[in-house]
Amino acid sequence: MALAKKTGPALVLVATLVITGMVLFPSRPERTEPPATTDSFENCTVIMVGRNASADGSVMATHAADCGVCDFTWRHVPAADHKPGEKRKIYHINQIRTWPPSQGLKWDLIKKDITGVELPEVPHTYGYHHAVFGYLNDQQLAIGESTVGNQRKMSNPTPSGVMDITMLTLLAMERARTAREAIKLMGGLAEQYGYGFHDSGEMLAVADAKEVWDFEVMPVGPLWTPKTGKPGAVWAAQRVPDDDVSVCPNESRIGEIDLADADHFMASPNVVSYAVEAGLYDPRSGKPFNWKRAYNPAEASAAADPRRSRLWRLLDVVAPSRKFSPETPNMDFPFSVKPDRKLSVEDVMALTRDKSQGTAFDPVRGLRGGPFQNPNYYKGTRLISVPNVEYTTLTQCRSWLPDIIGGIVWVALGSQDTSCYIPFYAGVTDIPKSFSVGDHWVLNREAARWAFDYVDFHVQVAYNAAIVDVKEAQRKWEGEAVAGVPERDRQAQELFRKSPAAAARFLTGYCLTNARNVIEAWWKLGDDLWVKYNHVMLYNPDKRLNGRIPTASPEWWNRAVRAHDVLTEPEAKK
User: Fold this and answer.
1) Cα separation of 419 and 394, whole Å?
2) Distance between CA atoms of 154 and 191, rounded to whole angstroms?
3) Residue 39: inside a domain, yes or no?
4) Scanning 13, 203, 271, 496, which has its CA 20 to 30 A from the CA of 550?
5) Model confidence over 119-140: pLDDT tens digits?
6) Could you report the per-residue pLDDT of 461-482, keeping only the tens digit for each?
């Protein structure tokens, strides 16, 4: 056998484990190199749910801010009226950059990085909630984000790209009521003032109470300036059918574009011409223009590159009857699918926490997760739920309710699997102070995010045991928040009929109180986990007993360790 030609300890160990039946890793094609067009695999997953694909008729969209070093603070910007002649300053906003808390909050410090461009202010700007991006305004406009990258020659790292993706989302929150309005606004501003500098190709899920769109915008190269007379960006948008679910895992998802179908497609005037000029599409080829193949080709499959498994996984979970294969190139998957069953808000929360359980990409398969089956050890695949997430949002837009009641953004700070979704309605006029402060490098017990990191840190000690405690807490707090939505809606509507301001005060009071209670519960949960699993033991405070964690050191793990010890003994002892 070929195996006999090499006797290194690692190879012998694999052979030993195969013989004992302990290797569960499936064979797969050789991994391909990451495509040159994509900036990062470690960013954000977006799920988009049409109103007829959801269990309650709401339009839903998610965003996972998977950064690990980004600013995670939130703030509320109130609605405002503006006088004729007022200007709106435009800032360069870097998604990644943060400052030490001693220097101030990011959203104050970005005002020092002005672009020199000022837009005429509109008479009225809407109130909204934002963190790295704008997420929900008081008109039920909602946004989620995923970096998709672009062809290298398209990148524009110069300040001539005045508009970046964060600034575009904030302007959309301030000025747009519907998804279509927001797309036209953002696309038009990117064309006029240029797009790029800090950002490459980006995708936004843009939703309102009736529909959700995939909007993708990309720079047009470092030589662009307004003097060229050409658009400073190229963009396209495709509407998710009302019966369907679509996803974006850091890959462009828009394919062929039919601009004659204005109900499903929008695009910049240079959507094809720029590709021709840049040598990215040849109309003489006889092939129809395809957005993603021209501007963001990602020629890989889940099987060939597990870092690209999220697309396959989400579509397979949502529509298992389609029997999608992980061997299918990601470029060949449909833009959207009809789910086998309509999705509830709890279903979508569960999707954001998915870790490819039971598949070839399961991070605890075989030896990957260690004795406590910890999914955060193995980095050979890319999961939907990852430990480096700043926060996850899930927006709901509901057409049958007044806007300030119908819109909800559910926020889970930190890792999805150990966090808790907290609701904030569109009409909420304040965000907890604990959401507006905090930093990765400075422990701050006044910062909400640190309560969830505190729990997450203690879960890592004995993951498969401690996660059970976390799920119990999630069932309580998330369960109560979700179950209480109909009654809160009813009470808010009664107040709204008398006074919209009274309804807003009611919703604000609930959201602030609930957030405070959840944060306090998570600090306590962290304390309880520390005591319960201290010294990698199992402590029972009520009975004042301790003992071995039942899941610790399973026999399959002990066998693997013994096999490894034998094979790695010094030669002199063998």
Assistant:
1) 13
2) 14
3) no
4) 13
5) 999 999 999 999 999 999 999 9
6) 999 999 999 999 999 999 999 9
